[in-house]
Amino acid sequence: HFITDSKADILRRHNAFPFNLAIAKMMPAGRCCEIPDKFERYVVSADVIRASVSNTVLRHFLNYAFNTYIKVWANAETSGSTRARINIEKLKKFKFALPNQNEMEFILNKLDRECAEIDKAIEATKASIEEYKKLRQAIITEAVTKGLDPGVEMKDSRTGYLGTIPSKWGVKKLRFFGSCQNGISKGAESFGTKGY
Hints:
Elements: H1 5-10, E1 15-16, E2 21-24, E3 32-34, E4 42-43, E5 48-51, H2 56-76, H3 88-92, H4 101-146, E6 154-156, E7 164-166
Antiparallel strand pairs: 1-4, 2-3, 2-5, 6-7
């Protein structure tokens, strides 16, 4: 969602900028991403910790670290009775395992290459999954509206969304199959002190 510059000025404590790290405070706490440079600034919610790390290599390395072992630690450190979250003070105290700059660059190059290949495979798989979902839906729709015999004689159902149906099939309204009822719309006080 977009907000005006004046509103962003009012919310300046929540302003984030390109290449900042945005770290989730809520479950799963510790998820992290690098803010893109599509806009000059962004406004993040109160459930996001913004970290400004000037060293590009270190920032990229920390992003990977946050999304692995730090996320596990952060989730273990969350607290809250209704919506568990980690606070910034705990997060600031977390220690990172850091190699020297050259080794960090080597690790990042390898991770970027391998993750790009995996991401490409994931996208291809997602496309395949979507095609299978469409195929599954088409098979179900065909079976429950046309039957299994492709040569069966058809008739007009006189119901727009059904179209033609097998000539020996009937059309009935849901109410003829049993009773229908809306969900419960009463407040908790209607159920007594023990709840429901």
